[in-house]
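QUALITY CONTROL LOG
STEP: pairwise intake check
CHECKER ROLE: data steward
CRITERIA: each record must contain a sequence immediately followed by its structure tokens, with no blank fields

ENTRY 1 OF 2
RESULT FIELD BELOW
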Amino acid sequence: MNRNLKTFILILVSVVASLLAAEGISRLIFDPIDFLKPRRVPDEVLGYRIEPATGAHDKLGYRNKSLPDTAEVVAIGDSHTYGISAGASESWPGALGRMTGKTVYNISLGGYGPAEYLYLMETEALALRPKIIIAGFYMGNDLRDSFTAVYNIDNWKDLRKPEFESLPETGESEDEEGFSYGIGDWLAGNSVLYRLVSSSFIGDDLRQARRIRRGQQIVMLEDEKSGISTGFTPDQRLRGLDLGRADVREWLRLSLEFFGRMNELSRKNNIVFIVVIIPTKESVFAEYIEGNKALQASDKIDYLIENERQADKAVKSYFDEHGIHYVDTLGPLSRSAGAEQIYPNNFGGHENKNGYRIIAETIRKYLDGL
């Protein structure tokens, strides 16, 4: 019995030692910030934020290696600025820092919108004494996010209109995640090895299959001539861009109001404020999918692209009228769509490292001209 116990203990110690060694090697090969899952906690104004120093994020809870005393550039945005589908250094703020040699601090999180951008500018970005603040404006859901914040968070109640207060929230969130914290979450937040193994079983392809089983519409494009293989979610995108609806026009009004306030705050603090307009994947691939009757939901795709053009026109008109600097990334992304893989080859609507690089290059060129 003693011999069996000793054998068991020896095996257990060997397994634990092997796992610890594998974890150490994993952390040497892979950057923990790109794999560890940060913990989300409630916030009365933001709705939620990342708990500081979890998931290898910095002590404020953002996707940076560390918190600098000052930053020449602060980037604020949602998941398209956070850098979903790419490593932290491959996000457009990370790429912009390498291209310019400037300290670029990334304050962003999926699910945030213009209301949160303004709040983060007031409470955190200004403390870094930046010369430039860049806000990433994703056309796909930032309009809806503005509405969600204003009509659910009392901090923004001064912007509400009575006729919209009784409207329910429209469309599912792309960033839904509760605040429960079990053993799986602990492992995901502390073990790179666990994340490597689990991610191999829960990849984007399986997520896509799960969405299809839930009834979500995903339209695939396989263009042999250009080599494009990717998917689109026009139904989901259209819920945030259908300007034929009065509530969506209200969403647009609110978004522009927030950007106007951000611009005024920047002026008062002698900071250059720039908005980076990030288009939907559907608009980037318009050359290949607009008017393409061979595609499922072709009419819906066309309607979505036309609505985004109208929204884009209204946004630029407002920015021009209010003297707000903006960078339009649609052209550069569209020109690259048939030349290289700039999005995942599935439903994912976030740019990959190539797409983020193009956004960063477009911003850098704009900064060179200031």
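ENTRY 2 OF 2
RESULT FIELD BELOW
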Amino acid sequence: MKLSKLIAVSWKIAFQMLRKIRKAMGNRDSIYGLSGTVELDDAYIGGKKTGKRGRGADGKTSILVACENHDGYPGYIAMKVIPSVSKEEIEVFIKENIMSTATVRTDGYPSNNGVKPHARPEKKVTLS
């Protein structure tokens, strides 16, 4: 409705335009692969709850995030919700989103060994 008001067209026209734009954006993302130096990590998102924190906490959703690193500046990113952080899930994510010529920086988590067959891994453990 907001778009229809902004560009002064009917809501049906605005809805059709949005569908076409979203489809085009999805197609573009499906053919783009991250390249160069790519940083890959997993995260857990969700509301604050009592009990266990971090990996394995109840009520949290696992995601994988990859970001191109251009001399310390971020480039394109890819994100995906995954059922669990496993070697298999990481392999699928890399095949879909990262070019085989990329150097992938990860932390030392064992599931990140899924990087090896599909890109050049570079493990780096950062302590905070």
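INTAKE CHECK: passed for both entries
DESCRIPTIVE NOTE, ENTRY 2: Strands lie at 37-45, 61-70, 73-82, 103-106, 120-123.
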